């Protein structure tokens, strides 16, 4: 059971790393417009991190309860609640991760299209004033 939990956590981390590596290979990132990518994908990154924390928390709590008595099923109310929250968060995580991967595959992120740095700087300066 421990091996499966570790394998699942490693897969979640690798999925987030693949998403970030895809961000790094875009023209927008290489042109220095990281804030633009962050604005478009901030919620997805937060959902990925929250899901990873919830999943790891459920796994650690489950293992700590089962470690003492492996044949007995004695979950507390808190563990049930955390488990249910993590299970409800799973479709949200998969939806936003899939959506982000499909959005980042847009060819506009990989070519010089509407990403003129001077217009971005004037936009940023307009926000500061």
Automatic annotation (TrEMBL):
Query: Biological process (GO) annotations?
Result: cell projection organization
Protein name per UniProt:
Transmembrane protein 138
Write down any Gene Ontology CC term: cilium
Q: Where is the signal peptide?
A: none
The transmembrane segments are: 6-29, 41-63, 75-96
Which domain of life does this protein belong to?
Eukaryota
| Family designation | Belongs to the TMEM138 family.
Species this chain originates from: Popillia japonica (Japanese beetle)
Q: Main role?
A: Required for ciliogenesis.
Q: Has the keyword Transmembrane been applied to this entry?
A: yes
What is the annotated localization of this protein?
Cell projection, Cilium; Vacuole membrane
Q: Does the keyword Transmembrane apply?
A: yes
Main location as per UniProt:
other
Q: Which InterPro entries does this one have? A: TM_138
Q: Please provide the record's keywords in A-Z order.
A: Cell projection, Cilium, Cilium biogenesis/degradation, Glycoprotein, Membrane, Transmembrane, Transmembrane helix, Vacuole
Q: How does it sit in the membrane?
A: Multi-pass membrane protein
């Amino acid at each position: 059971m421990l091996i499966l939990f570790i394998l699942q956590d490693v897969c979640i981390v690798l999925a987030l790393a693949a998403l970030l590596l895809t961000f790094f290979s875009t023209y927008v990132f290489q042109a220095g417009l990281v804030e633009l990518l962050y604005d478009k994908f901030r919620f997805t990154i937060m959902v990925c991190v929250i899901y990873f924390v919830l999943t790891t928390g459920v796994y650690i709590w489950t293992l700590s309860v089962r470690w003492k008595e492996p044949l007995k099923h004695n979950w507390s109310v808190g563990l049930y609640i955390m488990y249910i929250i993590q299970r409800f968060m799973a479709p949200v995580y998969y939806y936003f991760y899939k959506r982000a991967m499909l959005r980042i595959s847009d060819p506009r992120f990989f070519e010089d299209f509407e990403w003129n740095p001077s217009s971005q700087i004037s936009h940023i300066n307009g926000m500061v004033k």
